[in-house]
Design brief:
Helix content: over 70%
Number of helices: 10
Number of strands: 0
Strand content: under 5%
CATH architecture of the domain at 10-155: Up-down Bundle
Low-confidence stretches: none
Structural class: mainly alpha
CATH class of the domain at 10-155: Mainly Alpha
Radius of gyration: 19 Å
Shape: globular
CATH topology of the domain at 10-155: Four Helix Bundle (Hemerythrin (Met), subunit A)
Oligomer: single chain
């Protein structure tokens, strides 16, 4: 008998978030903080408040993912794994504090005129960001090692599908399109095929057709064709 493929909606998102972290880290460490235009554009990506930031804000995704887990995952898991969830919630609080500090530092940098001081503040900002990124990646690794097996233990695939759908419904379309691009470009071919197959099964055909166009545009026609071939086997 073929083994049932368990729903895993966290790993693809985590891979997308790691790509965001890598891209933002590279942008930070190569930025010329004496260049006001380039630095202002970078700081827009570091204001993590979705209410004031652009839809392309990189750090927004780190905050919103934590909020999604709090509201849709941890709330249901707390009765099953109280100690684990309490630990992860505390880590989310630390993440929010680190995000606040980075946003505050980037805003101070934007308001500074002295070029030497801007470069000093840029180095400090890079250190703060690296500290956040290291903490966040370690946190996601812990979730994949401990939370995902617990979700598989306590919930059916149908229940996990509903959690994923609830998270997707909450995200505005423009932000979901950006995050979807990071996700699909961060998956290996097996993961990508499973991800697309899962969307196709649970979405109405018209909605999936729109998402499929976004995915094809993001990953390219050659990779999209390879996904189609694997799905039709």
């Amino acid at each position: 008998m073929e083994k049932l493929q368990r729903e895993d909606f966290l790993t693809p998102v985590h891979k997308g978030l790691r790509s965001i972290i890598y891209d933002t880290g590279k942008h930070l460490q190569t930025n010329d903080f004496a260049d006001r235009a380039a630095t202002d554009a970078l700081c827009l990506q570091l204001d993590y408040n979705f209410r004031t930031a652009s839809s392309a804000c990189m750090l927004c995704w780190l905050s919103s993912h934590a909020s999604d887990e709090n509201d849709f995952v941890f709330s249901q898991m707390k009765s099953h794994e109280p100690e684990l969830i309490e630990t992860l919630l505390r880590e989310h609080e630390i993440i929010e504090k680190k995000l606040d500090e980075i946003t505050s530092a980037s805003q101070s940098l934007k308001a500074t005129e002295d070029l030497e001081r801007r470069n000093e503040m840029g180095r400090e900002l890079n250190l703060r960001a690296n500290d956040l990124f290291a903490y966040y990646i370690t946190h996601m690794n812990k979730e994949e090692a401990m939370l995902i097996p617990s979700l598989e233990k306590h919930f059916t695939n149908e229940q996990l599908h509903e959690v994923r759908s609830a998270i997707m419904r909450r995200a505005p379309p423009d932000r979901m399109a950006i995050m979807l691009g990071y996700i699909v470009n961060s998956l290996n071919m097996n993961e990508l095929t499973e991800f697309v197959s899962g969307l196709k099964k649970e979405m109405p055909p018209p909605a999936f057709a729109g998402v499929a166009k976004l995915i094809e545009h993001s990953i390219g026609s050659e990779r999209w064709a390879a996904v189609g071939t694997r799905m039709n086997r």
